[in-house]
Write a structure and sequence with these properties.
single chain; about 300 residues; mainly beta; SH3 type barrels; Porin; 2 domains; 8-stranded antiparallel beta barrel; 6-stranded mixed β-sheet; 2 helices; about 60% strand
């Protein structure tokens, strides 16, 4: 990655503002280096406890510093709050510049920097998953003996998600997917399908580790639920849409230096009421006319900030 530096340009003086240096020591674990002097600004990097920094400028309660990354192949510039550091030696306060001008990032090689990536708010995810249903419905008996069951709350799943990153490690997501469960045995084949439309609010726990843990929950609206049974003909049932909910916990590889990220999660998904039949070309058993579909999924996928 190419070298870069971040400078504050004063248009009234026509040059870069400089002041006396002051040496700082980081006093809190996982201190945040931010793009601008505000707690709502994008987080650029996590600074370890005990790190020594040099500051030449201060805006209000924020010191402007430069940090060498752990990999050592580039440096990052930004702001750290005065409550997260202590002044080493004789206290020489840096010059306070008001107002602070917008940062101007000057690149020598790299077209993208961790600062730019960290500032991105929108992202998309592609999810694939496999689930286990909590309820079983007996459909038929195999010719060789033994009953055949369908688990409408599980099966395979695919989903597209669009998300927005908010302050305080919160994210909001809207997703639409497709779920399919059933079996194929002897001459019988069953299939239960539904389209979940999901809204999620999640919280990502801060960590210096490669994997970031997150958890969340939200409502689900299940569209177009339907059941098909093929055996000497095709039999089908259509159900009314129904509201439900979901909750999940997972881990992601996302960090401010990379726009792409991987993730995996465990997700519960179910309905607040049973699926109610609204039309059919045969008269099904009671458990198919009023069907329950709860399950837990193991999901994985890839995401991109843009």
């Amino acid at each position: 990655m190419g070298q870069f530096r971040l400078a504050l340009k004063d248009t009234t003086l026509g040059g870069i503002i400089s002041a006396k240096e002051v040496k700082l020591r980081v006093t809190t674990e996982n201190s945040s280096l931010r793009l601008k002097p505000s707690s709502d600004s994008a987080e650029v990097y996590k600074i370890q406890l005990g790190t020594v920094l040099i500051s030449e400028k201060k805006s209000g309660e924020w010191y402007f510093v430069t940090v060498q990354t752990k990999e050592g192949n580039y440096s990052l510039a930004g702001y750290i709050h005065e409550l997260q550091v202590e002044v080493m030696g004789a206290e020489t306060k840096p010059e306070i510049i008001e107002p602070i001008k917008e940062p101007e990032t000057i690149y020598s090689q790299s077209p993208k920097t961790p600062s730019e990536i960290s500032a991105k708010k929108f992202y998309g995810k592609l999810i694939l998953g496999f689930g286990q249903g909590f309820s079983k419905i007996k459909i038929a008996t195999k010719s060789t003996g033994g009953d055949l069951f369908m688990e409408p709350g599980g099966g395979s799943a695919a989903e597209i998600v669009f998300g927005y990153r908010m302050p305080n490690n919160l994210k909001i997501e809207l997703g639409i997917g497709f779920q399919n469960s059933g079996f194929v045995a002897d001459n019988a084949k069953t299939r239960f399908q539904r389209i979940p439309l999901k809204l999620s609010l999640l919280y990502e726990f801060e960590s210096q580790k490669k994997l970031q843990i997150y958890a969340g929950a939200g409502p689900v609206y299940f569209l177009s639920p339907n059941f098909e049974w093929e055996e000497n003909g095709t039999f089908w049932i259509n159900y009314d849409p129904v509201f439900g909910g979901h909750a999940f916990v997972g881990a992601t590889t996302h960090n401010p230096e990379k726009p792409f990220f991987l993730f995996f999660e465990a997700r519960y998904m179910g309905t607040f009421s049973k699926y109610k039949m609204n039309s059919s070309n045969f008269y099904p058993i009671y458990k198919l006319r009023l069907m329950s579909a709860q399950g837990i999924f193991t999901n994985f996928g890839i995401g991109l900030f843009f």
